[in-house]
Amino acid sequence: MSVPAALMQGIVVAAFGRQYLVRSDADEMLLCVPRGKKSEVACGDRVSFARTSANQGVIEHIEPRSTLYLRSAAYRQKLIAANATQIAIVVAAEPSFSEELICRLIVGAEEQRMKSLLVLNKSDLPATVSARARLACFAAAGHRVVEISALHDCSALLPVLHGETTVLVGQSGMGKSTLINGLVPDAEASTREISAFLDSGRHTTTHARIYRLDADSLLIDCPGLQEFGLHHLSRGEMEYGFVEFRPFLGKCRFNDCLHDVEPGCALIAARDAGLVAARRFELMRRIIAAERV
Questions:
Q1: 54, HSE (Cβ side, Cα atoms, 13 Å)
Q2: CA 271, CA 226: separation in Å to the nearest integer?
């Protein structure tokens, strides 16, 4: 699309309700609102916008996205990040993490053909032994697990973040803020700068925020999540999000198999033969039942 001369272009670097902080291609920061009542803007979007004052603007157009990571309930969607290439799910031995939430986050990423990475933080704690065991079924399914202690050293994470636009997600209390400060040395200074720009921090609820790790790598930090709805996905898309199940999908005796008590279910046979983890099979069924598909 050709952009009229009156419009500027840039990337949405932070979201505050229906207001978005946009960094223009000329490296200016403007607080922008979308045109119209409904907002479909996400952090990471490339946008065209019109300046309305020295540091404000109106978003006129969202450029085509390569990916759109979102969560949904029956009547509401929440856009999380656009144009990301992978998610990094931060977990820790303390407090306890939800395996179902991890599955949901991964399924959402798989639907967008994004990669998934598990970051086991606080690896210096004794309880990490049990946390590692709980993550074993995810590692067996092919999801990479990187162990770090964000308080001491985050360097093991840098190679898997390089060249990617990574959405950092996880439950509250997993040490995500400590991790951000370890990966981005000027993160706190940058936050203070934005707070000053937004008039002494009146906009405190950030939906997502972009940090640049290097010339080729971006990190999109999201607030802590306690739930992640997948109502926008079909049953088949949720099943497909469990990557190790894919060789068995479509091979059940019945096309509408619910993988419950049906005879000739290929997934149940794979579970019983130890080809897929029983725990992952249980989580898939629980998620699909909860979404009422």
A1: 1
A2: 29
What is the amino acid identity at position 263? P
Q: Could you give the CA distance from residue 103 to residue 66 in angstroms, rounded to a whole number?
A: 22
Q: How far apart are CA 230 and CA 77, in angstroms?
A: 9
Length of the chain: 293
Residue whose tokens read 């223009």? 24
Q: Is the bond into 95 cis (omega within 30 degrees of 0)?
A: yes
The answer to whether 59 and 32 are in contact (CB under 8 A) is: yes
Phi, psi of 116 (to 5 degrees): -130, 140
Question: Tens-digit pLDDT profile for the chain (293 aa)?
Answer: 544 558 999 999 998 888 999 999 999 999 999 988 788 999 999 999 999 999 999 999 999 999 999 999 988 899 999 999 999 999 998 999 999 999 999 999 999 999 999 999 999 999 999 999 999 999 999 999 999 999 999 999 999 999 999 999 999 889 998 999 999 987 664 555 555 555 544 444 467 899 999 999 999 999 888 899 999 999 999 999 999 999 999 999 999 899 998 999 999 999 999 999 999 999 999 999 999 75
Taking Cα atoms as reference points, which of 93, 94, 120, 88 lies closest to residue 106? 88
Pair of tokens at residue 56: 């404000």
What stretches of 135-256 show up as alpha helix (H) in DSSP?
A: 136-140, 158-161, 176-183, 187-197, 235-240
Q: Output DSSP code: residue 247.
A: G
168 CA to centre of own chain: 6
